[in-house]
Amino acid sequence: MDRRQLTIELCKKEGLAFASLTEDQLGPMLVTYRHRPIGELHTTSPSALRDWHARPYLPDGRLGEDTGASYVTARAAAASLIPGRRP
C-alpha cells in the first residue's frame, strides 16, 4: 500500500491509529488521530519493541524534527504525538 492510500485508510478511524509503510512493521509508520494525520514513527532498532521515535507533522504539512524522546513501543510513540498531550 502506498503512503497516500494508507493515510486515507487510517484517517477513517476515530481514535489513534498507526500503520507501517513496510511489511516488516519497523516503519516508517504513519500516525493519525481523530481522522487527521499527525506524524510519523521511526526506529533505528532491529527489534519492533524498542527505540521508537516520533516526528510530528508541522502546520504546513512537512515532517518535523524528532521529538527527542525514545519509546519502547510504537503505540507509546504514536500517543506522544496526540495534540495537547504532555510527554
Residue runs with pLDDT of under 50 for 5 or more positions: none
Helix content: 10-25%
Strand tally, please? 4
Radius of gyration, taken over Cα atoms and rounded to an integer in Å: 12 Å
Instruction: Characterize the overall form.
Output: globular
Largest sheet: 4 strands, antiparallel
The proportion of strand residues reads 25-35%
* Tally of helical runs: 2
Mean pLDDT: 88
Instruction: Indicate the structural class.
Output: alpha+beta
Could you give the distance between the termini?
Answer: 31 Å
Order of helices and strands: HEEEEH
Question: Which strands sit side by side, in order, in the main sheet?
Answer: 1-2-3-4
Explain the layout of strands and helices.
Blueprint: H1 3-11, E1 16-20, E2 29-33, E3 36-43, E4 52-56, H2 74-79
Antiparallel strand pairs: 1-2, 2-3, 3-4
Characterization of this structure:
This protein has 87 residues and is α+β, with helices and mostly antiparallel strands. It has 2 helices and 4 strands, in the order αββββα. The chain has helices spanning 3-11, 74-79, and strands spanning 16-20, 29-33, 36-43, 52-56. The chain has a 4-stranded antiparallel β-sheet. Strand 3 and strand 4 (52-56) form a beta hairpin. The protein is globular. The model has no long low-confidence stretch (mean pLDDT 88).
